[in-house]
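Blackboard transcription, Thursday session:
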Amino acid sequence: MAIEVPLLGGTANRGRVHRVGDTVRRPLRRTTPAVHALLRHLEDVGFDGAPRVLGIDDDGREILSYVPGQAVTAPAPGWGLTDAALRSVGHLLRRFHDAVTGFDPRPHAWSASAPEPFADGGITHNDPNLDNVVFRDGRAVALIDFDLAAPGHPVWDVAGAARLWAPLRDPTDTTDRRRNRELTRLRVLADAYGLDDAGRTLLPAAVVGHHEWMTELVGDGARRGIPGFAEYWTAQARSRAARTSAWLHAHADDIAHTLI
Ligand SMILES: Nc1ncnc2c1ncn2[C@@H]1O[C@H](COP(=O)(O)OP(=O)(O)OP(=O)(O)O)[C@@H](O)[C@H]1O
Ligand SMILES: [Mg+2]
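(Written on the board underneath:)
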């Protein structure tokens, strides 16, 4: 009998993601056919920075390839927080957005897109969190967990990554080596991604939008009783989210100037 090893680090599917040999088993969702079409497209165009779809197992779970390496799960290891690691996240995101050019999302039912004006222009991962990027030798090699992928503007993913990896939040809420380097790291990410002038103009609003969007999504999940979200969405997490909003608004000009 195959051994099931729980894979930890996620919130939405906590306790329901397992490794079996070289595969990963995850619950199906309404949007799984869309995500599988996307992953198959990525395979067809030779993009190696995402898991492969291998099918559905007898327990009704999706089977994906296990990507060898390590995601940056809490407590975040130092190698995941260097500027070189951040640069590699920018490169990976750019390669992902380039690889989805030419993919037609219209036949599929997706997770909710970003709000306007970020709702189209490509396909976005939407959740480029630390624990959704697999690293090898200190470099990001693959995005995983495409549950929230949807049609969207690429800058939305750069904003999501900046928010979480820089990270763009009140430094009192950053206890690791990234503290007080958030704006420097924002620039590192934007430059590594190769963000164009139009993207740099859109990014400050996208960062605020992404924070509000994710806060709403997590709060909604908690209210609906999704265990991982309900556990995560404590009074402490809610006040941290409010501090992040306040910090983003107070530093809107700094964020914009950093990108010029
Ligand atoms: N295909 C994969 N290859 C390697 N590791 C994986 C893979 N899929 C998941 N993992 C590992 O399992 C962890 C949890 O998986 P996953 O991100 O799918 O869970 P989740 O609960 O849906 O996460 P989230 O809260 O981000 O939605 C990841 O952080 C990663 O460490
Ligand atoms: Mg995840």
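Lecturer's comment: Residues 10, 131-132, 145 surround magnesium ion (ligand 2) (CB under 6 Å).
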